[in-house]
Amino acid sequence: MSHVTLVETKPGEFEFRLPDIGEGVVEGEIVKWLVQEGDAVAEDQPIVEIMTDKATVEIPSPRNGTISRRFWAEGQVCPVGQALVLIAGVPGAPVAAEVAVKEETVSQDSPVSLPEIKISPVPSERANGARALAAPATRQLARDLGVDIQLVPGSGPHGRVTRDDVNAYRNASAAVAAPASPPVIGSAQLVTAAIASVADERRPMRGLRRKIAEKMVQSAFTAPHVTTFDEVDLTDLVAVRQRIRPKAEALGVKLSYMPFFIKAVVAALRQFPTFNASLDDATQELVIKRDIHIGFAAATDNGLLVPVIRNADRKSLLEIAKEMADVAERTRAGKATSEELSGSTFTISNVGSIGGLFATPIINHPEVAILGVNKLQKRAVVRDHGVIEARDMMYLGLSFDHRVNDGAEAVQFLNTVLGYLEDPEALFLTL
């Protein structure tokens, strides 16, 4: 594996490096190039879509000129500070003596041309037990793959370990452990395999889909999940919403059930603050959040995102409803900011609008709990004195991190949420 390529640029070429696009962001995936090599670009014209840990953003050109080289292919990850493109025809642009380009970012079918590569050796182990240099996402990948990052040779600047380093180390380890010769396959199996290879379709995990996958793996393999279920009688809440919905619409607000769930969760979080928290894995400290920022899952054409209602405990029912509608629309249109898609302290996942009686939602790491809201439907319920009535019922599922809270606290928390939903008058007293 190579590490640094020296590229002599021409006079009038401007080397544009990936800028710092958000607090804590160390790298971005090239989701889509908006320009080709040889295209003329104007200053502030979007040239590439970049996916970070927080959101997808468009990076504009800093100069007028022509794209003479793209250093990364779609689906590859560019660290902050590394060259994205060379822009030619820029008056007065300084001549760059060298441009760092990592071979790990160039695939065989990439449109990027391959200059001469100079390979520098890297140590197989770190001296004196020094901690490996690596981005948080790279460390998480190593944990997910069961790789000790301290043993991985780093190919990046100053020996930094990259994603490709981790994958290469894992593949090499697997190759050593693999049997020397492959098993014998019968002719019928070969025919079946050939048919399958023709019929199967392979789609690369890129952009938001890959980020979702990484997030789910991180949560599932970090927090020991437990899910507790209960059902809630929403008959009174349905009636209240029906009565006040016209008044909300007169004020320009479309009132769904989600604002009621948010207010009920907020009220419960005040009584059970350890559910409005995160666990610092490095220090093994529970961080109880002073603010209550509620995330809600929003389905988009590209995948699931979590917009955030900040300081939900300080907002009225109608304020939450209006803000939800606004940020959800911009999220589906790809216009939500990274701040609007990060920083939640508790998340609600509503699948009931599209159906489904039960679900075991995965915690939105590093949070410690998530509430799953399911289908609302009329069911026959045995009431007091054995009377059977048709009631508006719903199942709720609370997934929680068992390292932080036990089952008793989880059931008490969920019971509190249920209590507020079944008694809307008590819920309004919390506004």
Write the layout of secondary structure elements.
Elements: E1 14-17, E2 27-33, E3 40-41, E4 46-51, E5 56-60, E6 65-70, E7 77-79, E8 83-88, H1 136-145, H2 163-177, H3 187-199, H4 207-222, E9 225-233, H5 235-250, H6 258-271, E10 277-280, E11 285-288, E12 294-296, E13 298-300, E14 303-305, E15 308-309, H7 317-332, E16 346-350, E17 369-382, E18 388-401, H8 407-422, H9 424-428
Parallel strand pairs: 12-16, 16-17
Antiparallel strand pairs: 1-8, 2-4, 2-7, 3-6, 4-5, 6-8, 9-18, 10-11, 12-15, 13-14, 17-18
Question: Please, could you describe this protein's structure?
Answer:
The chain is of the alpha+beta class. The chain is built from 9 helices and 18 strands. The protein has helices at residues 136-145, 163-177, 187-199, 207-222, 235-250, 258-271, 317-332, 407-422, 424-428, and strands at residues 14-17, 27-33, 40-41, 46-51, 56-60, 65-70, 77-79, 83-88, 225-233, 277-280, 285-288, 294-296, 298-300, 303-305, 308-309, 346-350, 369-382, 388-401. It has a 6-stranded mixed sheet with strand order 9-18-17-16-12-15, with helices on one face. Strands 1-8-6-3 form a 4-stranded antiparallel sheet, with no helix packed on it. Strand 4 and strand 5 (56-60) form a beta hairpin. Helix 6 packs across helix 8 (407-422). It starts with 13 loop residues before the first strand and ends with a helix. 33% of the residues are buried. The model is unreliable at 1-8 and 95-125 (pLDDT under 50).
